[in-house]
Design goal:
This protein is an alpha+beta fold and about 180 residues long. The strands form two sheets. The chain has a five-stranded mixed sheet with strand order 1-2-3-6-7. Strands 4-5-8-9-10 form a five-stranded antiparallel sheet.
Length: about 180
Amino acid sequence: MYRINKIDYFIGVFLSTIINSSKGVPALFDETENSKRVEFSTDTGDFNVYIKYTTRIRKSKVNINGKKKKKMLCNISFSDRDYEILKDSFIREDKENLICLVCTNDKLNETYMAVLTYENAMKCLAHKTSSGNRRITITRTGAEHDFSCYGVNFREEDYIKCPVDCTKFLGLKDDDKEYTTMEA
């Protein structure tokens, strides 16, 4: 029997969202040998996606303009090997190249997906921490419509925004479904 690894779960979360949101049935799903890259075509285009995840969501309360709001934060670490794959062999010229960052808790019952363009993800990964690690941090405060994504040495004004509902980002908008919610 085939053993299901955590990465298989997170790839499934991403692909399930695509299938359930697409106006037509996706034409092709092609998982590559490293099992972190997924290439597929839908009625809205051709995609090449690198999927990374974390099972550590941190939550806090922050004071914004005198109101307490919930804040979600997670860090997605990228190894030197991950970075080299992205830098040297990930790009597919004939596809939209994306990085999907999946944040969930240990029980896997609360999941958020931030989808960045390749270019924006590489901006976040441009610098290492003092210990030599690369990461992308994803935050959301209250019921904001966007995640704020940033890397090492980013200033707040340089944070990259990406929609909480990644189906809109992928051109698969389905007004009846909300996949990731967080109350203010």
